[in-house]
Amino acid sequence: METAVLTRRAALLAIAASTAAAALPAAARARTHTIVMEKMRFGPSPTGLRVGDTIVWVNRDLFRHTATARNRSFDVDLAPGESGRTILRTPGTVDYICRFHPGMTGRLIVVT
Ligand SMILES: [Cu+2]
């Protein structure tokens, strides 16, 4: 009998914990991902991107590059050695290019 009570209490605590996690604002769950520009290419796009996450763009090349969304949702212009950031505000698929080197392309897939 006592075991059953303890089990029920544990179950209630588990439910309370998961409810608290779900109630966290998106910003509290947000993660930061890095995409490096190097040798005239964008590094691999991170997987598991969610609304609220941040992309840090790092230009390790000897050339100026941009990360420019085709849907105009972001446009980061970076001199050699610079970095910049984009916060992902909306879900969806966003293709991006470098405005100076259109052969440099990438794609972000963002879920809610
Ligand atoms: Cu470029």
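^ copper (II) ion complex. The chain has two domains: 1-25, 31-111. The mean pLDDT is 85.
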